[in-house]
Amino acid sequence: MTTIRAITPIDITGLRPLSPKASMPELTAVDPRTLYVDGAYQRSIAERGRRQILKIIENFCWTRFKPPVCAYGPYEGRQVLMVLDGQHTAIAAASNPHIHEIPIVVVEAPRTAEQAAAFVGQNTERVGVTSLQLFRAAIVAEDEDALTVEQVCRRAGVTVLSMPPSHARYNARETVAISTLRGLIFRQTAVGARQIMEVLANAELAPITMHHIRAAEFLMTDKDHAQKFDPEDLSKAIFDLFLVAEDEAKILAHAHRMPYFKALAAVWFRKTKKRRSSTSVAA
């Protein structure tokens, strides 16, 4: 029985296929040493990337070769080819003395924002490109959702890092919790998300983690908690507890089989100064 299958269309009933706006990509051969990378949306080569490049050089084989995706863009008054996807492959080819030309796919994306958007599209479902790298590329591509995340954090005094720092040495008010931030804005709107992030920023957390964001969101939006404290008092409680809160939350979560972020919220809430009720003021 044969295992060979022909490529056949699938049923697309109910879908609205998009007609491509850009022209069809072109395949051409170039000297890899003539290619460029735009650091506005492409990551620098770290040690892990360098090891990957060395491995490609040592095992270079055309049957494994995937042509880099490039686009023409301006640089120093002339048009050059920018690598949108495949910079490790391009660097490996440029470093191999036996390789003088490589095939590349040239797409139509003359503006930096269009190139960054192409980078996001090329890497969205690929392993190896982190959510932080995609987020930075989306910012350059002027993606509305990414710009909203950046604006919310900037107004709250929070810095979204391009990559985790070496040895996990974070400064106060830094975060890498991109997915959680997106979810927060989706649920609470930009204004609500900014208020929650301000509480965490003022607590000088280093870094602000996904658990911190979920815990603060729970306390500031839950009807049984939100009206019982002022945001600045919650910030003070978080600051005063520091790492003690996380240790207590782990014990509480394990003992009561509850989500960690809710246990953390409970620890913070116990420490937070409560508002005086109107009944107690009248008395």
What is the topology?
Blueprint: E1 26-30, E2 35-36, H1 47-58, E3 69-75, E4 78-85, H2 87-95, E5 102-106, H3 112-123, H4 131-140, H5 144-156, E6 159-160, E7 174-175, H6 178-202, H7 210-221, H8 231-241, H9 243-256, H10 260-271, H11 278-282
Parallel strand pairs: 2-4, 3-5, 6-7
Antiparallel strand pairs: 1-5, 3-4
Helix pairs in contact: 1-2, 3-4, 4-5, 5-6, 6-7, 6-8, 7-10, 9-10
Describe what you observe in this structure.
48% of the residues lie in helices and 11% in strands. The protein has 11 helices and 7 strands. A 5-stranded mixed beta sheet has the order 1-5-3-4-2. Helix 9 crosses helix 10. The longest helix is centred in the last third of the chain and has 25 residues, at 178-202. It is elongated, with a radius of gyration of 25 Å. The termini are far apart. Residues 278-283 have low confidence and may be disordered.
User: Helical proportion?
Assistant: 40-55%
Category by helix and strand content: alpha/beta
Head-to-tail CA distance between termini: 88 Å
Strand content: 5-15%
User: What does the largest sheet look like?
Assistant: 5 strands, mixed
User: What's the Cα radius of gyration?
Assistant: 25 Å
Number of strands: 7
Please trace the helix and strand order, writing H or E for each element. EEHEEHEHHHEEHHHHHH
Number of helices: 11
Mean pLDDT metric: 87
Shape: elongated
Q: Can you list the strand order of the major beta sheet? A: 1-5-3-4-2
Sequence stretches where pLDDT stays below 50 over 5 or more residues: 278-283
